[in-house]
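hey
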């Protein structure tokens, strides 16, 4: 990943610095309004990170210590960590082989009497099938939280992802398509949840908006509950506003690069590239490939091959239940065969807006050469 930054972002940051107001302020409020509108929801609350946004989203959605929250193990560890922060137990659901996302069926298998919420992750920008999950949550009176960390620009049934969840968390870190360096956002149509989230990000200070602080005699502060230091700065928000304007072009370019990869590898046995599901489109935050047994190299050998060729790729999404921090965790209540298969067999290919035709050809040529390499793994057909 390489972020697409330019003079627009630089000028926006300079204007904020010249204004003298660099902390959370008017640019942050403007970014919140613009981002929420772009996602088809009414309210946005900027945060210091996507993890902070998910943590607060769970709190305002009513998750309590001792609750169970269903999450995919196939996700960055932050998804499970945020559940743990609120004192709840992450209960791991398996995922669909084609999309790497949870489904209503895999979630339904692991609902417990203590389940109060589901965190549905858009895997690498690929949208989760939200409508069946929405029906499941309504039937069981569960909160539906969407972890759309890197999914700005992805769509679900013709709408931006996140619009159908009760609350959605976003990340703008350096690997996200829309980046502010660090930072995050939660979006919701629930004004009570948004108001509480604004307080929680500022140590739960009431009032929490910057306007009273600019008055000669601001009102007396109150702290009705324990909160956090999860504010976004106006420097970050200024970058985010410029990035938001560039988002359609970034998504168009990334989707074109992914389509070219699929065309090149369509006839290569043993490589399966992720593709859009019927119900939505991906922003290609990650272009992941499953290395199947028919390929002459296994996943680790292919990564070594690419590295030796000067190409940076990385392993696919981790399986959280296999990490030391969650070893023996009681949240694994059923086998997770698809999760473990994808965690052990996928790689993420280079995709970024400024990727040149020559760079793209170089990656393709290296992978095509690897497909012709002498077989190092056992032949799946025993020949």
């Amino acid at each position: 990943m390489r972020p697409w930054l330019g003079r627009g972002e630089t000028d926006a940051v300079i204007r904020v610095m010249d204004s003298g107001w660099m902390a959370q302020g008017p640019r942050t409020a403007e970014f919140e309004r613009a981002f929420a509108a772009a996602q088809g929801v009414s309210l946005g609350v900027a945060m210091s990170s996507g993890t902070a946004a998910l943590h607060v989203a769970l709190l305002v959605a009513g998750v309590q210590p001792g609750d169970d929250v269903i999450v995919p193990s196939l996700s960055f560890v932050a998804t499970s960590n945020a559940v743990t922060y609120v004192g709840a137990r992450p209960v791991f659901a398996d995922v669909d082989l084609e999309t790497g996302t949870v489904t209503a069926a895999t979630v339904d298998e692991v609902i417990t009497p203590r389940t109060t919420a589901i965190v549905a992750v858009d895997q690498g920008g690929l949208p989760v099938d939200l409508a069946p999950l929405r029906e499941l949550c309504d039937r069981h009176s569960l909160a539906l939280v969407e972890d759309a960390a890197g999914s700005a620009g992805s769509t679900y049934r013709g709408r931006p992802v996140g619009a159908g969840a009760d609350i959605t968390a976003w990340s703008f870190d350096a690997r996200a398509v829309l980046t502010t360096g660090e930072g995050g956002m939660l979006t919701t149509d629930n004004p009570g949840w948004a108001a509480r989230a604004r307080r929680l990000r500022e140590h739960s200070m009431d009032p929490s908006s910057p306007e009273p602080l600019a008055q000669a005699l601001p009102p007396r502060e109150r702290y009705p509950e324990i909160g956090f230091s999860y504010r976004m700065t106006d420097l970050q928000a200024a970058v985010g506003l410029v990035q938001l304007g560039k988002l359609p072009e970034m998504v168009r370019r990334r989707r074109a690069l992914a389509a070219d990869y699929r065309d090149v590898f369509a006839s290569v046995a043993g490589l399966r590239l992720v593709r859009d599901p019927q119900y939505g489109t991906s922003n290609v935050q990650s272009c992941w490939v499953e290395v199947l047994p028919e390929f002459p190299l296994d996943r680790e050998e292919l990564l070594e091959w690419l590295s030796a060729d000067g190409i940076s790729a990385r392993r696919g999404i981790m399986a959280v239940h296999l990490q030391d921090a969650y070893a023996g965790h009681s949240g694994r209540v059923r086998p997770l065969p698809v999760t473990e298969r994808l965690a052990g067999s996928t790689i993420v290919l280079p995709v970024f807006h400024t990727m040149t035709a020559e760079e793209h050809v170089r990656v393709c040529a290296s992978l095509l050469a690897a497909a012709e390499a002498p077989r190092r793994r056992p032949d799946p057909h025993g020949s």
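The first strand starts at residue 43 and ends at 47. The radius of gyration is 22 Å.
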